[in-house]
Amino acid sequence: MSVEGVYIDIFIPNFFTPNNNNENDFWYPERVEDYHEIEVSIYDRYSRLLKEFKGVQKGWDGIYNGKPMPTGDYWYVVYYKDILGEKQKLIGNFKLYR
Question: What is this structure's pTM?
Fold first, then answer.
């Protein structure tokens, strides 16, 4: 049996700057259009869930409970289905700059 390798083309930005200048104002994985069942969760340094998304979205604007979150590191968990239909997970962090 042989299994072909598949390149996952999801791009995870490592920072964003939600300052309403229309550049990097939202954080969300890019090139996810082929992953219809994508799920994205964003956490702060205390493991508090800040935002959840399903499917292709605009992304997180750096707001939690109506207040802007401070500059700092935030973490994500991304679930998607691979070519065989199995659920895969990506974990990492990114920086919010104010």
Answer: 0.88
